[in-house]
Design a protein that fits this description.
Helix content: 10-25%
Number of helices: 8
Structural class: alpha+beta
Radius of gyration: 24 Å
Distance between the termini: 33 Å
Shape: elongated
Number of strands: 22
CATH topology of the largest domain: Rossmann fold
């Protein structure tokens, strides 16, 4: 196991800053997922850790040693690429053993390590096959076995599941998670798929425009998003966000807008301010008798099998609500949504950062 420390890491391509002053600590045995949309800098960050892309500024520490300028082959790291990059003319056994042969390890050591890693990954019956004879999931496991055969301190994975179909992706997610638990190794995994992040990670680092938006456990980033970007990116459907105004009503703070009145359950403070109100689809219900009400019109109903999601227009904002199927409403219906005030989120409309209310709001 190994610990990675990233300090002020930057990468510029001409006038474009792909990674912007990222500070990140990856402890021993962590399964960190770098999550974000295409072009947010997550793969560039991973390649800098691997040594494949030099940083423009900052440094990378591995177990306390500065490896910023260390060549890739001299770092105790292994990388699994999106394309798997297997040698088509080599058998599975020789593909897996290639990193050890390149380091001129003894034949007995190579055979022993290949046997161990293929047994762990369920590849023992495939050793004589070539990549063209394997399924996508089997190729992914071979690429992972080749990365793990040298017993690296850190395993870096660059969207390794993106080429798999939905069923195989689900099964391989479970295999990777179980493998990480067995090995106790440090994994850094890049993906834009939030389901991968939520199901596999011990911690998630959300990136946006090269900057680090939030780092935390899957529960933390989902339940307490640090910004409107995280709130809008994580979750399917994304959190409903709408502009509102916090003001005092009968001694209690309310978030209010056209068709919206959500009591926050906090004693009134001497303030009135603009906010962005956020509520997740599962924390809204149709109708109800609660005091936290949103008035809207149904614009779309999605059938997800066991449940349905209705997208409602509240003012100018699109707010989703999730309910068991059949949801009992149709496009064009006027609806009243009841919110759980304890699950309401408030954000600063300028910075987008989450607001913490003490008796007065403080941006974090």
């Amino acid at each position: 196991m190994s610990r990675i420390e990233i300090e002020g890491l930057m990468r510029r391509f001409g006038r474009v800053t792909a990674v912007d002053a990222v500070d990140l600590d990856v402890p021993d045995g962590d399964f960190l997922v770098l999550l974000g949309p295409s072009g947010c800098g997550k793969s560039t960050l991973l390649r800098m850790i691997a040594g494949l892309t030099p940083p423009s500024a900052g440094r990378i520490l591995l177990d306390g040693a500065d490896i910023t300028a260390t060549p890739p082959r001299e770092r105790n790291l292994a990388m699994v690429f999106q394309s798997y990059a297997l040698y088509p003319h080599l058998t599975v056994a020789r593909n897996i053993g290639f990193p050890l042969r390149a380091r001129r390890r003894p034949r007995t050591e190579i055979d022993s390590r290949v046997e161990t890693v293929t047994r762990v990954l369920g590849l023992a019956d495939l050793l004589d096959r070539r990549p063209k004879e394997l399924s996508g999931g089997q190729r992914q496991r071979v690429a992972l076995a080749r990365a793990l055969v040298r017993d690296p301190g850190v395993c870096l994975l660059d969207e390794p599941l993106s080429n798999l179909d939905a069923t195989l992706r689900t099964a391989t997610r479970a295999e990777l998670t179980e493998l990480h638990t067995r090995l106790g190794a440090t994994f850094v995994h890049v993906t834009h798929d939030q389901v991968e992040a939520m199901t596999m990670a011990t911690r998630i680092a959300v990136l946006n425009g090269g900057r680090l938006e939030q780092v935390g456990t899957p529960a933390q980033v989902y339940d307490e998003p640090a910004s409107t970007f995280v709130a809008g990116f994580l979750g399917s459907p994304a959190m409903g966000l709408l502009p509102a105004r916090v003001e005092s009503v009968d001694g209690v703070l309310h978030a209010r807008a056209d068709g919206v009145d959500v009591p926050l359950g906090l004693p009134a403070a001497d303030l009135t301010r603009e906010v962005v109100l956020g509520v997740r689809a599962e924390h809204l219900s149709l109708g109800g008798t609660g005091a936290a009400r949103l008035q809207g019109v149904v614009r779309l109903v999605e059938n997800l099998g066991s449940e349905e999601v209705a997208h409602c227009l509240v003012g100018e904002a699109r707010i989703p609500v999730r309910a068991p199927r059949p949801i009992g409403i149709a496009v064009g219906d006027a609806v009243t949504l009841t919110a759980d005030p304890a699950r309401a989120h408030l954000f600063d409309p300028t910075s987008g950062r989450r607001l913490v209310w003490q008796p007065t709001p403080v941006s974090v």
